[in-house]
Amino acid sequence: MTVATRPLTGIVTTDLAAVTRGRWVPTDRFEETLATGIGWLPANLSLTPFGTIASPNPWGSTGDLRVLPDPDARYRTSATGAETPFDIVMGDIAALDGTPWPCCPRTLLKEAMAALSETTGLSLRVAVEQEFQLFGASFPPAHPLSVAGLRRADPFAPRLAAALEEAGVEPEVLIAEFGTDQFEVTCAPASALVAADRAIAIREITRETARMLGWHASFAPKTAPDAVGNGVHIHFSLVDGEGRAVGYDPAAPAGLSRIAAGFCAGILRHLPALTMLSAPSLSSYYRLRPNHWSASWTWLADRDREASLRICPVTTAGGRDPAPQYNIEYRAADATANPYVALAAIIRAGLAGLAEELPPSPIIGEHPEALDPARREALGLRRLPETLEEAMAALEADSVARGWFSPDFIETWLGVRRAELERLDGEPPEEVCRLFRDLY
Ligand code: GLU
Ligand code: MG
Predict the structure, then answer these.
(1) Is 221's C-beta closer than 6 angstroms to any atom of ligand 1?
(2) pTM, rounded to two decimals
(3) Ligand 1 pocket: which of 129, 133, 178 to mutate (most atoms <8 Å of CB)?
């Protein structure tokens, strides 16, 4: 006997806990939802990673919104191994009359992109590189980066490659990474909006592909206190109105053009507050430690994986042109962050650097931990927040960064984090990591 299924399409939004949520309509009726979307409510923005609503919050029990699907941001594949197609459409939260809702993360990113291009004529090309670990598979041990590391999980990686390709995220490389049962997916650069959409689609498609094999793919920043971290590395480059790369200047130190240096200087100036937006959970701060190849100082370096902003390598092999490859990697991010918010903040900070014509930040070849405090001070190096409480204080102390968002948004953001701190109060790091491992 065949049991009928009617495929469903999810109209989704990603919240401040970086959880992608939505409502489902029969796929054959999806077109009918294009103009009016699905119902939503303001208090959903105060949902915590633990399935509670942070309280107090600015929203209460009243109010109604819509999530309007963006048909250009539909991610669909039949290759995850599931019985019915994976099919989600990213949406924008809007008021009942269809006007943008000022706290919608995806709208905040669009506004930041528009501000950058209106003020400078520039935009970003972005690719998000994501690490995760598989749990529940009882693989035999394998060496980091090894052939067996990938092949023992077969058909996971080839199935994932097919699903990501079919969904249109332009996957590039699948890696068995350094950590235990750790993998990484990279994809091709696109606009900041598409890159954030892809980051979400990649997470959900990866989770589903693992789930179909009976496993859990966890993107949590630390799945155990002594585990290798799972980073979300945000690669960006600046392009002009014609799409020409403007970040590379072969005559400049480390190839960083004056314009890209100004953009980076803005990011570095606001990095302590930005960290709250790109690494917002308690467990994020177990990852952001020196000597873990993550990020720990307001540090720009040429091809050093300890730096928070890493100038990435270019290759001239095969006669390739370095300019379009040249990019900067922001390493202080993880998958507990909403990628739209993280990118909106990076763009706003970079734009502030350009608007104020900040001088280029020094490109530092030594680890800040190896420098004496006076030298660090002279170089303008500051330690990133070491705990969630410090990160919250850094955001509260940076009035410029807070001003990139509405007061309701900041209140909601901090409220979600406060609820997280209350929920986790007194839990040992092992338990915090275990919870985030299962939730992300
Ligand atoms: N796993 C490291 C992190 O937490 C990154 C390793 C790498 O450079 O790929 O960010
Ligand atoms: Mg990696």
Answers:
(1) no
(2) 0.97
(3) 178
> Which pLDDT tens digits describe the chain residue by residue (440 residues)?
788 999 999 999 999 999 999 999 999 999 999 999 999 999 999 999 999 999 999 999 999 999 999 999 999 999 999 999 999 999 999 999 999 999 999 999 999 999 999 999 999 999 999 999 999 999 999 999 999 999 999 999 999 999 999 999 999 999 999 999 999 999 999 999 999 999 999 999 999 999 999 999 999 999 999 999 999 999 999 999 999 999 999 999 999 999 999 999 999 999 999 999 999 999 999 999 999 999 999 999 999 999 999 999 999 999 999 999 999 999 999 999 999 999 999 999 999 999 999 999 999 999 999 999 999 999 999 999 999 999 999 999 999 999 999 999 999 999 999 999 999 999 999 999 999 999 99
- Report the separation in Å between the CA atom of 63 and the middle of ligand 2, taken as the mean of its atom positions: 42
Which amino acid type is present at position 73? A
Topology at the third CATH level for domain 10-42+62-102: Ubiquitin-like (UB roll) (3.10.20)
Quote the CA–CA distance of 389 and 392 in Å, as a whole number: 5
- Binding site membership of 294 for ligand 1 (Cβ less than 6 Å): yes
How does 178-193 read in b/e, with b if 16+ C-beta sit within 10 Å?
Answer: ebbbbbbbbbebbbbb
> Cβ(280) to ligand 1 under 6 A?
no
* 108-439 topology per CATH: Creatine Kinase; Chain A, domain 2 (3.30.590)
d(CA 265, ligand 2 centre) in Å:
25
Question: Could you tell me the residue ranges of all domains in the chain?
Answer: 10-42+62-102, 108-439
Measured in Å, residue 224 CA sits from the centre of ligand 1 at 15
Q: What share of the chain is helix, strand, coil (3-state, %, to 5)?
A: 40, 20, 40
Phi, psi torsion values for 254, nearest 5 degrees: 55, 15
User: Degrees (nearest 5) of the Cα angle 280, 300, 372?
Assistant: 95
